[in-house]
Amino acid sequence: MSRFGKFAVSRNLKVGGSYSHDTISDYRTWLATVVLSSVLITSCAPTGPSVVREPSAEVHPPATTAAVEPPKVKLTGDLMYDILLGEIALQRGHFDKAAGAMASAATSSGDYRVAERASLIALRAKDYDQARQSAELWAELEPSSTKPLQTIAVVLTAQGRLDEAEVRFNELIKRGDPNVGVVYRRIADLLAQHHDIDGILELMGRLVMVHPADADAYFAKAYLADRLKNAAVVLQSLDTALSLRPGWQEAALAKFSHYASQKDLDGARQFSEKFLKGYPAASKLRLHYARYLIDEGKRELALENFKTLVEYEPTNADATFAAALLSVQLDRFEDAEKYLKRSIKLRPSNDQARLYLGQLSVEQEQYENAAMWYRAIKSETLHFEAQVLLGNVIEKQKGISAALDHLDGLHPSSDEEQVRILLSKEQMFRVEKKLDEAKTVLDEGLAQFPDNAELLYARGLVAAQLELIAVHEQDMRRLLEKDPKNAHALNALGYTLADQTQRYHEALELIDKALKLKPDDPFIMDSMGWVHYRLGNHQLAIEYLEKALEKREDAEIAAHLGEVLWVTGDKTRAEKILKRALKKSPDNDVLLTTIEKLKQ
Predict the structure, then answer these.
(1) Ranges of each domain in the chain
(2) Three-state SS letters, 180-208
(3) Is 85 helix (H, G, I), strand (E, B) or coil?
(4) Angle at 185 (CA atoms; ends 183, 189), nearest 5 degrees
(5) With helix as H, strand as E and coil as C, how does 123-181 read?
(6) Short-list 191, 243, 247, 181, CA closest to 216
(7) H/E element, 534
(8) Up-side HSE of residue 156: CA atoms within 13 Å toward CB?
(9) CB 428 within 8 A of CB 392
(10) Phi and psi at residue 78, in whole multiples of 5°?
């Protein structure tokens, strides 16, 4: 039996990135994970490992009043000495000495800027007592600023003095930004730096109750709970935030992100569908949900969400193209054509859409349209591929001679492009059932590129069709020498040995290795079914072949299952399967040969 069709490469699709949600080191990064295009919180803490570390005083709510005018300080010799000593010690990594010198400079100068510098250096030195003293001085010298209050709260938190820290955080909430949500978010970011100190989440809960009707406060609490890996509080806090601000997409995205991080597909789907039913224009959530569905293999549902997204945002070029690609993969050709053409209108430079339109036209035997789309592709990255595909169209329109002339007129710029031309020529000869000519092209190609895996694989398959078992085995074994885990080569060799020789146990071993590498591949399942059929294990053969056909309605798989069912006495079911396959693939050689054999 011919086996070439079994090894054809199916279309692949990648829409966007994998959706993931990991523990993030600061609030801004968390928001970037759960919100596609949100305005990020400014002045976030510097990133770093998720362990207790020196508190950052770089996270400052803005002062509610104008800053104090910097004092005019007389630069005495002692002051200059302390400042220089502090800076030089800091540069050399002597943080304790730097903190002491700068604290002395702050006291003698009475300059709040030096006090701020002193407190930050002491924090870096983890000298929390000194840091607090300098911050207290800073607060006296710049009473209108909330920055020193924040630094003091950071120090107290780092020391585990949460009751005292709570007093300072409360003062921050009262004196901070009029938008208290901004303050809560920054406080959550600060507390998250100390996620292994007991009582942090309880402290945040008490702070939230200062403004129990503020949705942002609960959102901040959810972030902190996420850092502390407390899933129950994450969901509870986000639910409260959404009850206070229904339809809030940022909170909805965070909740969806939480479900996704837990690999809870049911939770993610139930929540997203309920939210999107109430707020169908929530495009950011819908986009993330659709991408997640793709990652989970739910392409039909993903397509429906992309289509809805396009309805609400008809100028969204990315969503339109995603809907087009999913439609192509799901063989929804009418939808695919509609969305691809719309993609080009929205983004005229999208030659990838033109390439797909050309392929769709070929599948529908609309060769003039296909040639038009391929000729319209001008982009440097796709032009050569389009010209090779145009050669296949010319073969359909004018015959193989004209197509070969077209391919010979191309100017490949690399070995890869030269190999691409050779493979295209080989395919044309194979389609025309001129297998000797196809092998000649591949022989010439391998003389030029002796270790090219694609040429070796293609010649091995053609050799199998020509029943040149030695050549087939030689090429596949060369591939396996280079890549012992090449599942396609293992499968091809195993199938050929099962189909054209009596080396069944050797074939079984090869196919078993391939199936372990690609357990969901329907063609390898089919090979496993076929080798068990040849071994006389008919029931096992039927099980594998049924699974293969369920995953992919392929004419050769149907032919194999039909033959095994016929031989085992289930002729009625065999005829049903074969007739259905014949209706879809009336010219398939393997299918026709099988039907003719069973009639005898």
Answers:
(1) 412-484, 487-600
(2) HHHHHHHHHHHHHCCCCCCCHHHHHHHHH
(3) helix
(4) 115
(5) HHCCCHHHHHHHHHHHHHHCCCCCHHHHHHHHHHHHCCCHHHHHHHHHHHHHHCCCCHH
(6) 181
(7) helix 522-535
(8) 19
(9) yes
(10) -65, -40
Task: Please answer whether residues 197 and 224 qualify as being in contact, where contact means their C-beta atoms are separated by less than 8 angstroms.
Answer: no
Closest CA to 218 of 193, 191, 243: 243
Task: Judge whether 287 and 312 are in contact, CB under 8 Å.
Answer: no
Looking at residue 69, its pLDDT comes to: 66
**Contact call for residues 429 and 443 (beta carbons, < 8 A):** no
| CA diameter of the chain | 112
Token pair belonging to 184:
């809560």
pTM strictly above 0.85 = no
Query: Residue 447 burial (CB < 10 Å; 0-12/13-18/19+)?
Result: exposed
For residue 54, give the DSSP letter: P
Tokens of 595: 């039907």
The pLDDT confidence band at residue 135, using thresholds 50, 70 and 90, is: confident
For 487-600, CATH number?
A: 1.25.40.10
Same fold, 412-484 and 487-600: yes
CATH architecture assigned to 412-484: Alpha Horseshoe (1.25)
Give the highest mean pLDDT range of 2-11, 148-157, 267-276.
267-276
Q: What is the DSSP string of 202-256?
A: HHHHHHHTTSTT-HHHHHHHHHHHHHTT-HHHHHHHHHHHHHHSTT-HHHHHHHH
